[in-house]
Structures are given as C-alpha cells and as structure tokens.
Amino acid sequence: MQNYKKLIGSISIVTFSYAASRGLGFFREVLLAKWVGVTQFADTLDLAFIIPDFLFYLSAGGYLAITLIPLISSKKEEELNEYFLSLLYGLSIVFVTFALIIYSFRNKFAGFLGVESIDYFNEIFTPIIFSQVFFFIGAILMSYQYLREKFIYTAFAPVVYNASIILFGWINSSTPENTVRGFAIGTLIGSIVGHLLLQIIGASKSGLKFNVTSPKFKYVKEYLFVSFPLVVGQSIAVVDEQLYRIFGSILSAGSVASFRYARRIALLPVGVIAQAIGVASYPLLAKLFKNNDLEELNLLVRKQLVYLFTVNGIIMVFCILNSKFLIELIYERGAFSTQDTLRVSNIFSIIAFAIVPWSINQILTRSFYIQKKFWFPVASGSTITFTSVLFLILTGSKTAEQYAIVITFSLFLYSLILLYTVKFGETKVFNKSMGMDLYKSSLVLLFIYLLLSQFLTNAGFMGALMSLLIIFLISYASIHLLKFKYINITKRK
Questions:
Q1: Kind and range of the H or E run holding 423
Q2: Which of 21, 33, 354, 363 is an S-S bond match for 158, by CB 3.0 to 4.6 Å?
Q3: Cα–Cα distance between 168 and 187 in angstroms, integer?
C-alpha cells in the first residue's frame, strides 16, 4: 500500500510538470501557427529539427532514465559520485563530437531533405543542432535527480525551454521568416538555461558533488552496450514523425507543417497522462521485478494498461468527433487560414486514433525494459518500421492523409504485438480478465462514437461541450455497470 501511495505522489508531481510543459509547448505551436502558418518557413523549421530530434530521441529522449538509473543505482553510495561524473563527462565528450560531425554535413542534409534555401536552412539548423548537446547533458543530470527522487528542477526545464522559444519568436515576429529564426535562437538559449544551468543546480542540491575528474571510458562503453538495443529499436517511436518529415518533403508546401500541427494536439494526452504514468511508475515496476513480486507486478501493469486504454480512448473519441472545431479553436488566427483548418483537421481526425497505442506503449515497452529484454521490442519495431517505409515507397502515396493512416496502423500493430507477448516469469500480462476489460472499453467507445457522430460531429463549441458531457456520463456509468476488473472508481471505506 505504501508503494502505491508513493507512486500516486510521484505521478502527481510528474503529471503536473508534464502538463505545464505540454501546455506551454502547445501555446508555442499556437503562436507558430499564428505567426508563420502553413508555409515553407514552417516546413523549414520542421525539417531543420529532423536530425537533431532523431539524435536526441536515440540518445537522451527518455532512454537515459531507462538505462542510466539501473546502472547508477547498482553502485555503492561511496562510489556513486565518482562513477556518475565519469559517465557524465565521458558521454558529453562523445555527444559533442557526434554533434560536430553532424554539423559538418549540414549542406548534405539540406540537399537530401530538398529544402528551398540551403543558406536559410543552415541558419536555422545551426542553433538547433547545438542545443541538443545541452539537452543531452541535462538529461544525464536529470537521471541523477530522478534517482534521488527530486523532481522540482527537472520539472522547470521544459518550461524555461518553451518560454525561451516563445520569447525569441515574439521578438522576431515581424515576418514568418524572422519568426522561425527567433524560434531557432530561442531553442538554443532555452536548452542552455533550462536543460544545462538549471540541472547543474538541481543535481548539486540533490547531492552531486562536482569536481574535475578524468572520464573512465569503460563506464561509457558499459552505457553504450546497455543502450544499444534501445537505440536501434527507437525507430518505431519516431517513424510517425521523422519518416513523415522526410517523405513529406516531396509533397506540396505545408504538408509537413500540417502533420506537425495535428500531431502536437494528439500527443497532449499522451504526454500529460500516459508518459507521466510511465516515467513515475518505472522505478516501482523495476523494484517489483527485482524483488520477484510478479503477482503484484502483473496486477499493476494490467491496471495501468486498462486505465490508459479507457481514459485516453475516451479522449481519442472526443478528438475525432470534434476535430475541425479543435483545430479552428486552437490554430485559426493570423497566418493560419480556414483552408489550413480543413487541411489539418482531416489529418488530425486520422492521427487521433494513434492516441491509444502511443499511450499503452509507454507501459508495454517499460515492461520489457525492466527485464532487460530489449531485443524483442527492437526486432518487432524495426520490422514494422521497415515495412511502413517500403509500403510508402511502393505505393507512391501523395497525400498527408495516406501517411497518417499508415503511421497509425503501424503503431496499433506494434502495440498488439507487445501486448500479446509481454510476460513476467511464466505469466503473460494479457489474460482473460484484462481482455474482457479491453473488450468492454472498446464497446463503450464504439457506442459513444456511433451515438454522437449522428448529430454532434464538428458541431462547434456547444457540440463539443455537449459531446464532452455525454462522453463523461456514459463512460462513468459504464465503468460502474460493466464492472471492470482493473478499474475501480468506487470509494472504499
């Protein structure tokens, strides 16, 4: 019981920080839509992020905590400081070197991505690529704070980062071209302040004693060996964004930006709810597995999966039913026209289906990682990625909607494979009771969609408000009446 109380507290803190971060990041996207719209400049900004984002995803984005926390937690307290600093300095050298190599090939990247102006692309690309260095160092420092169960400074990092982008974008918002320049500069400044300086302070207050020491590259080799499967398997996590950017560059102007705007909204519930639960619960999942408390572990994972499937499934239905209204409400102002709204809402109504697989994958992948079973998610994810790429090439799809369908389907397929194969010991996570809960939840979601789609689809503000109320009432009543095994909202005495 104590574990669950502590878990709820951790989830609350992480959820709050994620909500603040996502909210500010979302406001950033709203301003981008207002100041830049669906233009070639928005596409250039998106294309300039392809390599840096991919670099960050493969190194720092979430997986540092997955790999570093088990490594540093296994060390004795008296040797932890020296070990961590050695790892910090060694990995930083590796990453800085890698970033410099990537930067030297910027012209080739510009040519490969088919940008309209190589000089303008390089101007945007330069501050963005070097911002990833500070992201990486900050992610390492964050892992130390997570180990000490300190979240305050890590929570402020994305807030400072997004605030910096907004500030410099606003300062330079005279034209769409200059706005994008401001966003790029803000990215660099925000990463330095939020993800480097702030995390140095946070790590220091968490007990890390900084001193000059020579990095021992055997520790770096250890990290790289452990993280390699995750790096390879990360392809499925970014196929929806990175591949679309690459393939989308051959489409009409604004296609990449349209997908970006739609995807940002879909990822909000994933980041605020699913990712927060995944991050906060990971240490507990690892602890239960280490202590061989497999019955409790199975119960916790099943509850999380059914909860995320149901809650974010409800959000998914709401988004699909009100896609046009949501895009209009959030983006349609300034340079973002009514035609842009129709274009983005069509994509959003498709990519919203991916909210569910994105959500449950936060728990499914971690269920493999705590067992150090890295290669199965790698193999299945890489296979699906390769198949998706091949399909896109062979079919010669030309519309953003077609890309969104392929991406969503690949994510669902990946989730199903993980769901039916993950197990702890000899016991599979997916059992008959869980299957019945997911079946009941699916029926409720289908019923809500069929009911409301008849008269409330894209019906404006009142339609959205009515659909939200009806969805909540039906969902709440269904959970009570259908007696879900792994969802209990009844107050216990």
A1: strand 423-424
A2: 21
A3: 9
Q: Which of 136-140, 236-240, 406-410 shows the lowest mean pLDDT across its residues? A: 236-240
Q: Which amino acid is at 353?
A: F
Both tokens of 236, joined, read: 């499925």
Q: Is 213 helix (H, G, I), strand (E, B) or coil?
A: coil
Burial of 287: CB neighbours in 10 Å, binned 0-12, 13-18, 19+: middle
Amino acid in position 117: S
Task: Copy the structure tokens of residue 179.
Answer: 């706005």
User: Which 8-state DSSP code applies to residue 196?
Assistant: I
d(CA 327, CA 99): 36
Q: In a 3-state reduction of DSSP, which class is residue 424?
A: strand
- Where do the structural domains in the chain lie, given as residue ranges? 10-231, 234-493
Structure tokens at 34: 């207002």
| Other C-beta atoms lying within 10 Å of the C-beta of residue 477 | 11
The closest of 320, 365, 337 to 457, measured between CA atoms, is: 320
**Residue 209 · residue 82 · CB < 8 Å:** no
Q: List, for residues 262-289, the tens digit of each pLDDT value.
A: 888 888 888 788 887 887 777 778 778 8
For residues 442 and 318, give the distance between their C-alpha atoms in angstroms, rounded to a whole number: 14
Residues in the chain: 493
27 HSE (CA, 13 A, CB side): 15
Q: What does 292-359 look like in DSSP terms, one character per residue?
A: T-HHHHHHHHHHHHHHHHHHHHHHHHHHHHTHHHHHHHHH-STT--HHHHHHHHHHHHHHGGGHHHHH
Supply the DSSP symbol for 219.
Answer: H
Q: Are 298 and 429 in contact (CB under 8 A)?
A: yes
DSSP secondary structure letters along 70-123: HHHHTS-HHHHHHHHHHHHHHHHHHHHHHHHHHHHTHHHHHHHHT-S-HHHHHH
CB burial string 320-340: b at 16+ within 10 A, e below: bbbbbbbbbebbbebbbeeeb
User: What pTM does this model have?
Assistant: 0.73
Q: What mean pLDDT do residues 424-434 have?
A: 91
pLDDT tens-digit readout, 96-109? 888 898 888 888 88
DSSP of 348-410:
HHHHGGGHHHHHHHHHHHHHHHTTT--HHHHHHHHHHHHHHHHHHHHHT--SHHHHHHHHHHH
Contact 55, 99 (CB under 8 A): yes
